[in-house]
Amino acid sequence: MSACWTALEVRGSQPEIPLSVVKLWASAFGGEIKSIASKYSGSQLLQKKYKEYEKSVRIEEIDGAKLVKNVAQNMEEIFRKKAEATRRLVEAAEEAHLQHEENPDLQYEYFNAVLINEVDEDGNSVELGGEFLLEPNDHFNNLSVNLSLSVVQVPTNMYNKDPDIVNGVYWSEALNKVFVDNFKRDPTLIWQYFGSAKGFFRQYPGVKWHPDEHGVIAFDCRNRKWYIQAATSPKDVVILVDVSGSMKGLRLTIARQTVASILDTLGDDDFFNIIAYNQEIHYVEPCLNGTLVQADSTNKDHFKEHLDKLFAKGIGLLGNALTEAFTILNEINQIGRGSSCSQAIMLITDGATQMYDDVFAKYNWPERKVRIFPYLIGRESAFADNLKWMACANKGYFSQISTLADVQENVMRYLHVMSRPKVIDHEHDTVWTEAYVDSAVSINNHNVLCLYTSVPPQKNQGILLGVVGTDIPIQELMKTIPKHKLGIHGYAFAITNNGYILTHPDLRPLYQEGQKRKKPSYSSVDLSEVEWEDTEDVLRTAMVNRRTGTFSMEVKRTVDKGKRVLTMHNDYYFTDIKGTPFSVGVALSRGHGKYFFKGNVSLEAGLHDLEQPDVALADEWTYCNTDEHHENRHLTQVQAIKLYMTSRKPHLKCDRELIQQVLFDAVVTAPLEAYWTGLALNKSENSDKGVEIAFLGTRTGLSRTNLFVVPEQLTNQDFLTAEDKEGVFNADHFPLWYKRAAEQVPGTFVYSIPFSSGGENKSVVLASTAIQLLDDRKSPIVAAVGIQMKLEFFQRKFWTASRQCNALDGKCTISCDNEDIKCYLIDNNGFILVSEDTSQTNLFFGEVEGAVMNKLLLMGSFKKINLYDYQALCKEYAGSSDSARTLLDVSTLSSRAQRTMMVPCDTEYPAFVSERTIKETTGNTDCGGCIRTFVIQQIPSSNLFMVVVENKCDCSSAPPVTMEPIEIIYILFINQINIPHNESLKCDRLKFQKDRRRPQSCHPFHPEENAMECGSANALNLSLVAILFPVLSFLISR
């Protein structure tokens, strides 16, 4: 034992790293780099200029309740205008149809969206094409459009000159005048449209549509969410699928496709379940026995995955299946768990040997509240009559599906039956969908989330004409938010009646920023998935129930592509948006985020300094609304401000308070232009061009920049451009360098290397510091200034400082050049800025020095914060029956399963933050019996730390500390022992329903409905009519 101790003592007896020397290095580097950052940013000058106004400005605490009320009213006005536009279209559509007489022989040339401006081989316009004037328009994302006319799109699987299409297109030409008039009244409108129940789609302004690579346009307006939600009321649906032996082969394939198509017609306000039956009842998802689930995208996708597991055998006992379906619907209705509106049973089978009138008599007659929609699969019609009778006797509709090509058109028919009560009631309900991108309609910008408002025009006998609607870009709603009042970390957000996000700064709808590919469930991201610290759903529940109130909690906000975390305390204020199913909230961070100040300067001085070439205003902030009138669209924000403040355009809608403060900021920051210019002209300064840019931003969205090198020589060309989304003022956030500087100790700089979404090294270091008005915690952060310098320049300063020592003879016993030690410079989140191995730049320190990082965590120098991402993407290995994810051992998968795809998932991952109170410390790690010493020393006036580590032990076996996310597994396929528990976990998650508020409008049935329009009235034989008539006459007489 003693020998062992002796050995350890010898191996660990190396001279320790002198703390005083490391402190000297840190002090020398800190002084040098702060001197450079202060000098070139002009931070001290700007602080002095704001201090000069300290006694004349007025500091106000933000009234969050008043703020959210104003935001709600502004949004309400936008929604009201869009609803009025659709109502004018409804009236015009109904009037035009009333005046039209159907003519089966009508010949009419219209502008087909695909064929316009197409010519044949002789140079002549093709039929339904013709010359159609198109001009680029910046309001429509520079697409070429026609502002005088609309175009008509007809699905590829429909005949362009079908009499129903031609007649519908002819009378709906009357909408062109209303489209144009609507756009004149409200220039903020974008796409307006009419989706016909016959299948064609009229869109304004006119734009050319392009088929896919197969020459096909699959878009059919009738299976879009906005169409279905406007046409029908919320519904509870039980889908019964016959899996008896006769359904083998193609019939089962068609049945699966039919079920999938039905699921596609269900929206977030609907509820459903799927039951397969033969001689037994089989729930497609066994854990959902006897209940219904919300038809959100996640649940629908889950059931679709199970459809392939259906196989046919045995005999079909439909009576048992119908009884089960009626029982579920009745119980769900009684406990109020479903939609509490319309109910339907979808029956997918190849025939029925009897009518099961005893089941209907027991559960559905005489009220007939549950509609029956039978889908006869296959060409055989031997048992069709019974199915036809079921539809007619239960206010449903019968369809026969012989091929896969017939599926969609036949499935859609049930929607028109479900729409009858609403049409007969002559209810023009405005339906607001959740925010989503419909690339076929919103072709102006795939990356802009839109809302659809739809109203169903009608004609007599309860037959739907179609749906009219318009898009509302989320960006337009964002313009109503006074970002300057929300502060650096504050934000506004809005949700639907289902708790889904309309807008929130943490919503990530795309697979990758800048790409057009949308995540499957991007439109149903729940508020609880971004405000996940609210574990009791207090905020979500209050907002879903349209309450007005406040809520507070500590939150962890990630920045810099999710790699860094800021911890703060937020106060939330929320209220409902009248006339819509939406609620809006604002979050204000405590401390400087709750205060705003007002200063005054002369109008002449303010306008003069605002018009300087180095000044820019936040692109997505609204100082003046130039969109409301066509004649103002060409104005820049600075031009609009000048016209408004000089009373030359007094009718412009402008935010006077914001403008007065941006003029104040323009005057206070103006001296920096001359200061930076002087530095740039001084040849003795910055001779090696290490500093490239100086920049500043203020609380009003004003920014100034100065280049110390010509633009072509900039190392990072994207910085402060639209490409650098986190680095500029945005509709929902302040720049990253501003946010991080605000959380630093006043007077200190925050340094970082930008993370690139593409993974390439930006080779620059950013330094920024916040400017406070007062010296206390309640002081608003009035601005932030900073510089961009070359990484090589920054690192050279570090290595120069680390060669210093206190030796009188100048011979240093230790320096970072020694092979016995390794020197690193890391930031407060543990990312490496300087290392001898340049490939380690911007890596997390724990990946390089796992043993040391673990010790720093144990010592409390750094702390680990667990974060959750409910919009994450994980790699899935295609071809594996258990959907193997990255967490499984890839080597166990067969070679054909090596193809990977990115799929949505939930993850947990760590972030790391330094402990501010610890300035310096020493420690050691045991690497297999070898003691390794290290020193960590804070760099003064910064967020940086120097870490010096002995290099005499092999610590390569120590596991790294990484920031890699770990997928949260709800279904595990690891071994048989875990299956019962995991099935239970999966089941609980499926069954769990968060609070939601039902839509107010509900039209389940109407006594004046013509139930004989059921897809088969003329086909009933005499014996069936004899049975049916007493039932119908009894119901009608009631």
Figure out the total of helices: 27
C-alpha termini separation: 100 Å
Main sheet makeup: 7 strands, mixed
pLDDT under 50 segments (min length 5)? Answer: 1-15, 442-447, 880-897, 972-982, 1017-1038
The secondary structure category is alpha+beta
Radius of gyration using CA atoms only = 34 Å
- Helix fraction, binned, reads 25-40%
**What is the mean predicted local confidence, pLDDT?**
87
Number of strands: 40
| Approximate shape | globular
* Percent strand: 15-25%
Please tell me about this protein's structure.
With 1038 residues, the chain is an alpha+beta fold. It has 27 helices and 40 strands. Strands 7, 8, 9, 10, 11, 12 and 13 form a 7-stranded mixed sheet that branches. It has a 6-stranded antiparallel sheet with strand order 4-6-5-18-15-14, with helices on both faces. A hairpin with a 4-residue loop joins strand 5 (192-196) and strand 6. The chain is globular and about 110 Å long. Residues 1-15, 442-447, 880-897, 972-982 and 1017-1038 have low confidence and may be disordered.
Structure characteristics:
27 helices, 7-stranded mixed β-sheet, 29% helix, single chain, Calcium channel, voltage dependent, alpha2/delta subunit 3, 6-stranded antiparallel β-sheet, alpha+beta, disordered C terminus, 1038 residues
